[in-house]
Amino acid sequence: MTITFLILAGLTIAGTVAAMGLRNLIHCVLALTLGFVGLAALYMHLGAQFAGFVQILVYIGGVAILAVFAIMTTQSAEPVTRPGSAPFWVAGTLVATGVFAVLAWAIHGSGAHGRVLPAEPVVTAQQIGFALMRGYVLPLELMGLLLTVALIGAVVVAIHERGESI
Amino acid sequence: MSPLSSYLLLSALLFSIGLAGALSRRSAILVLIGIELMLNAANLNLIAFWRYGARPEALTGVMFAIFSITVAASEAAVGLGLILAMYRHSKTTDLDKMTSMRG
């Protein structure tokens, strides 16, 4: 466990906890962006540079911007966001703590402790491109189909219907 | 503590944070963000297992993570579109006030 890992893990946890705990929704998404940056840096720390850049492009450039747009479109009628009432917080935190306890117990009992770090693999974008075009070409095409369906579906679901107010 | 189990513990913690947010927040957008966090925790697990696995040059974990990110992105797009459609019907994104599917 290196100091780099500790810093990045702290950044990620701080960002995500703030994203789930803050009152203002826009602040939540900004904190979430910090958490995504930490996660992308962790991917790069693990040697998966391409996945780290994909994480930045998709989550910070796509999902976070989309969430900000959704908040700005919907928040005008309700400027003050009410946080969850106290019983919800207690119940949610209790369930999450229970899940974390079970997962930590399972990790503690697994063979993950004895794992030694193998030599760092050389992963270039070229290798990933070859892999995508050879072994993973069918999943790649399916992903393209899924993205097209999701794009059209999201537009159809959210489209402004004629004759409707707003 | 070995590095792999510290990554797994971090991932479990991220999953729990996302789960707590998805269960306790009342804004539909934040519930969706909590679900995204849980997906991200799974991606961190995939990449950590790839790095500490037997044959990292096979790129299996990275490929799985990239496809998983793609699916999560399309899920976020459709989910936010659904939230906008619900907002148009019920004029709120508060899940407690969305009591009817017909608005």
Annotation keywords:
A: 166 residues, mainly alpha, 6 helices, 0% strand, B: 103 residues
Task: Explain the overall architecture.
The complex is a heterodimer of chains A (about 170) and B (about 100). With about 170 residues, chain A is mainly alpha-helical. In chain A, about 75% of the residues lie in helices and about 0% in strands. The radius of gyration of chain A is 21 Å and the shape is globular. The longest helix of chain B has about 30 residues, at about 60-90. Chain B has about 100 residues and is mainly α. Chain B has helices at about 5-25, 30-50, 60-90. Helix content of chain B is about 75%, strand content about 0%. The interface between A and B is large, with 90 and 74 residues.
Low-pLDDT runs of chain A = none
- Tell me the span between the first and last alpha carbons of chain A: 53 Å
Q: Structural class, judged by helices and strands of chain B?
A: mainly alpha
Estimated radius of gyration of chain B: 17 Å
Low-confidence stretches of chain B: none
What is the rounded distance between the termini of chain B?
A: 53 Å
What percentage of residues of chain A falls in helices of 4 or more residues? over 70%
Question: Biggest sheet of chain A: strands, sense, closure?
Answer: none
Strand percent estimate of chain A: under 5%
Q: How many individual helices of chain B?
A: 3
Which range best describes the helical content of chain B: under 10%, 10-25%, 25-40%, 40-55%, 55-70% or over 70%? over 70%
The sequence of SSEs of chain A as H and E is HHHHHH
Largest interface: A-B, 90 and 74 residues
Q: What class do helices, strands and sheet pairing of chain A give? A: mainly alpha
